[in-house]
Amino acid sequence: MSIRPATITPYPDGPLLVRGDVELFTVEGEPIPLRRRTSALCRCGLSAIKPFCDGTHKAAGFRTEGR
Ligand code: FES
Q: Is residue 60 part of a domain?
């Protein structure tokens, strides 16, 4: 059995895609349930379901640097 580390991939003009076995917590230390093995975390700051991405970045025209 191989154990692969969790990965975080910044999606161009979009969220951070988190894959693998991770745990997510609020700043108060409360666990945030993950719905899937791959989660999209908002980095535009506009999602209504933070910390998860709800797709609002597209309508807002969010752009990442370096592109
Ligand atoms: S990155 Fe998708 S809503 Fe913020």
A: yes
User: Residue 23, class by beta-carbon neighbours within 10 Å (0-12 exposed, 13-18 middle, 19+ buried)?
Assistant: exposed
Range of the domain at 67: 37-67
Single-letter amino acid, residue 47? S
pLDDT tens by residue, 14-64? 999 999 989 999 999 999 999 888 999 999 999 999 999 999 999 999 999
Establish whether residue 24 lines the binding site of ligand 1, counting it when its CB lies within 6 angstroms of any ligand atom: no
19 lines ligand 1 (CB under 6 A): no
CA 55 to ligand 1 centroid distance, Å: 5
- The answer to whether residue 51 is domain-embedded is yes
